[in-house]
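Quiz preparation item.
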């Protein structure tokens, strides 16, 4: 190397460092992370993405509102990697770290549905909150056909990818900023809840605060989704088209909305409403404002939840009154994608399985559905003692109107956790807040979803900082950017109860009370 060239190189480095130290909180240039050495890990790229310059890969950015999180992203350091904790494993992951304005914390993201792609939209939302964030494709791309050949990939999907991704993300963050995150958070819904559940149960040191909605128990909630399909499709006369679900939903509101003292389209405590679908049955034949006798029968089946025809044992929690509008996605003619994927690959090992030619048997098929190697995808262990002993906080927030994963599973899990770790410990570490009108991950009947994901991590941050569980959480509805309603969410089993005077759109006029 000549003296001249080395001088230029030195000048370039000094210039780079001076620009870099003014604009960044990072300890090293983002690009240098390409040579970071981590166990079982290949860093495939490390590059700074300029503010507003990120474009998601084709077909991954969503349209309209779904593309919104990618607009105006701040500058970030983007690291991509492939993890191979076993010889079968092929886990793709990304870490996104704000170049400036890092809040000092890490927020991981699980992967929705049956996994199979990195949730870039969720990562973008999390980055907007100032977090360093990461996620994975759970170890496979696309649907679950890998199950037929690769048992280790099932473990990756069940829980290992989430854990490995978390460990590697923390190491990348520490290398980039010169120190690891102060606190680490997860906020998972549905498929992404599967990661959150397994993290706190199996790897209690990975996260400090975990929020979960749409508590996942896939072997059974896929069964419930197929039960709704069966109730609609086994006999064509039973089919409930969307307009009939609207007729039904309106009748439910008529019967249940006012029971909480306020007629506002929200049912604060659906189990308290004993709704009889017979009230909407046509006097004779069919009509636009009523349901036929076979349709009413289908509704009764759905409200009963999947049931073993031989023993009459209830196999899963039923959807609650108020969730009717969400049923259309499970009603057919095609079965719901997640449930079909699960039954094809995990249960029947037949990618061509069709429920019309091989109907589910709700008694003898249980042994196939719940093979031990399938049960690992349920994060069902209520013993989270290690997680809470380390100071971990669990915030469950469940939509009463969720028909995709009915809220009973979370309520039951919460009760089991309290029984297992003790009521006193649970009081400081575990909270369940039921949300009226909230469907799966987001609201369809109300916009009580605005900013949920950021909101709940904020509640966890306060909980850890103040060492005090939230006594209530204020939910809000907005229209045209303006808050039009606030309402407290109450610690289960308490219910938000109107005091009887003042605006029912103001949280101040409600108290949390036992139902
Ligand atoms: Ca109401």
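Solution:
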């Amino acid at each position: 190397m000549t003296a001249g060239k080395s001088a230029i190189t030195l000048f370039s480095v000094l210039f780079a460092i001076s620009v870099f130290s003014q604009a960044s909180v990072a300890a090293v240039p983002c690009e240098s992370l390409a040579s970071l050495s981590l166990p079982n890990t290949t860093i495939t790229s490390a590059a700074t993405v300029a503010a507003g310059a990120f474009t998601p890969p084709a077909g991954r950015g969503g349209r309209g509102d779904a593309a919104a999180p990618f607009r105006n992203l701040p500058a970030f350091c983007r690291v991509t990697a492939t993890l191979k904790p076993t010889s079968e494993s092929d886990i793709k992951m990304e870490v996104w770290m704000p170049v400036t304005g890092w809040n000092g914390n890490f927020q991981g993201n699980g992967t929705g549905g049956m996994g199979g792609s990195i949730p870039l939209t969720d990562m973008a939302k999390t980055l907007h909150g100032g977090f360093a964030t990461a996620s994975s494709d759970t170890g496979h791309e696309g649907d679950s056909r890998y199950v037929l050949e690769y048992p280790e990939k099932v473990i990756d999907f069940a829980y290992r990818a989430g854990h490995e991704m978390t460990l590697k993300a923390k190491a990348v963050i520490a290398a980039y900023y010169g120190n690891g995150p102060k606190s680490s958070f997860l906020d998972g819904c549905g498929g992404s809840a599967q990661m959150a559940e397994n993290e706190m149960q199996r790897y209690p040191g990975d996260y400090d605060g975990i929020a979960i909605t749409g508590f996942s128990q896939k072997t059974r909630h896929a069964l419930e989704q197929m039960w709704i399909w069966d109730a609609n499709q086994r006999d064509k006369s039973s089919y409930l088209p969307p307009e009939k679900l609207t007729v039904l939903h309106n009748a439910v509101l008529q019967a249940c909305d006012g029971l909480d003292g306020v007629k506002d389209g929200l049912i604060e405590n659906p189990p308290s409403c004993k709704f009889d679908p017979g009230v909407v049955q046509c006097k004779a034949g069919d009509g636009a404002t009523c349901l036929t006798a076979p349709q009413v029968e289908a509704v009764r089946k759905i409200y009963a939840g999947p049931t073993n025809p031989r023993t009459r044992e209830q196999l899963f929690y039923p959807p609650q009154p108020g969730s009717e509008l969400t049923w259309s996605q499970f009603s057919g003619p095609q079965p719901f994608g997640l449930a079909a994927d699960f039954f094809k690959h995990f249960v029947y090992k037949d990618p061509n399985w069709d429920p019309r030619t091989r109907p589910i048997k709700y008694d003898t098929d249980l042994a196939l559905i719940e093979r031990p190697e399938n049960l690992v995808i349920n994060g069902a262990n209520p013993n989270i003692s290690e997680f809470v002993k380390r100071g971990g906080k669990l915030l469950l927030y469940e939509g009463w109107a969720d028909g995709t994963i009915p809220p009973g599973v979370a309520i039951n899990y919460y009760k089991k956790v309290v029984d297992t770790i003790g009521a006193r410990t649970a009081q400081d570490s575990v909270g369940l807040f039921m949300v009226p009108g909230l469907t799966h991950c987001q609201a369809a009947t109300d916009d009580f979803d605005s900013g949920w994901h950021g909101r709940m991590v904020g509640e966890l941050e306060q909980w850890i900082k103040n060492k005090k569980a939230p006594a209530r959480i204020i939910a809000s509805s907005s229209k045209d950017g303006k808050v039009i309603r606030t309402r407290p969410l109450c610690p289960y089993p308490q219910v938000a109860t109107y005091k009887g005077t003042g605006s029912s759109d103001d949280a101040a006029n409600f108290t949390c009370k036992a139902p």
